[in-house]
């Protein structure tokens, strides 16, 4: 059945950044989140992952899972790559394999990390760190991928590897939600447009002082 979001609202730093967001992503489809900086794309992904407080419903197959259940169903790749700088590439992947399950071999090969497997992570370029962070998606099967600007710093070969992984995951019935400013090379089955102005207007109008109710 897939992922369904209904009337989701979320505040950050005392400011409403999402208001009454709703969309559905069936199994095997890709949803693209678009909007200007500050529109709440990252906040929305974090809310889906259970990392940000929100109101509204996030359903998977018609049920609202608790946080533990979400962690078994979702893989979240945010702006930070979750890389330990003192460990090598292989050691970072092995750490995540111990946490998530799976083996690092496929991830190393898919994202072209085999030849730098013994390199300490603090010596990696931005693109190499991004590839290492994204490779966690392949360690253990997670049905729903939440990707926040995944193409940042990737070269053409790494971008092709990512697009291939996304297509393969969708073909296997997975659900992918991607926040991005530009094209990612796969067709968007679902488009969600976010507006920073709409959320701000809703917040201001709900304040009785700012709305003029004090007069």
UniProtKB/TrEMBL annotation:
One of its GO terms (molecular function) is transmembrane transporter activity. Gene3D superfamilies: P-loop containing nucleotide triphosphate hydrolases. This is Heme exporter protein A. Keywords: ATP-binding, Cytochrome c-type biogenesis, Membrane, Nucleotide-binding, Translocase, Transport. GO terms for biological process: cytochrome complex assembly. It comes from Amaricoccus macauensis. SMART domains: AAA. The keyword Phosphoprotein does not apply. InterPro entries: AAA+_ATPase, ABC_transporter-like_ATP-bd, ABC_transporter-like_CS, ABC_transptr_haem_export_CcmA, P-loop_NTPase. Residues 3-214 form the ABC transporter domain. The keyword Cytoplasm does not apply.
């Amino acid at each position: 059945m897939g992922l369904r979001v209904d009337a989701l609202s979320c505040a950050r730093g005392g400011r409403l950044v999402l208001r009454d967001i709703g969309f559905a992503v069936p199994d095997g489809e890709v949803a693209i989140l678009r909007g200007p900086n500050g529109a709440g794309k990252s906040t929305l992904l974090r809310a889906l992952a259970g990392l940000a407080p929100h109101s509204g419903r996030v359903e998977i197959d018609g049920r609202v899972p608790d946080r533990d259940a979400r962690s078994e169903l979702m893989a979240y790749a945010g702006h930070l790559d979750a890389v330990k700088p003192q460990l090598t590439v292989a050691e970072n992947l092995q750490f995540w394999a111990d946490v998530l399950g799976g083996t690092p071999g496929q991830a190393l090969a898919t994202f072209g990390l085999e030849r730098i497997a013994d390199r300490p992570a603090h010596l990696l370029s931005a693109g190499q760190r991004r590839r290492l962070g994204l490779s966690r998606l392949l360690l253990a099967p997670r049905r729903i991928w939440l990707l926040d600007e995944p193409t940042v710093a990737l070269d053409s070969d790494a971008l092709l590897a990512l697009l291939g992984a996304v297509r393969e995951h969708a073909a296997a019935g997975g659900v992918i939600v991607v926040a991005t400013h530009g094209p990612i090379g796969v067709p968007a089955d679902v488009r969600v447009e976010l507006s920073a102005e709409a959320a701000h207007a809703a917040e201001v109008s709900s304040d009785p002082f700012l709305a003029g109710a004090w007069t």
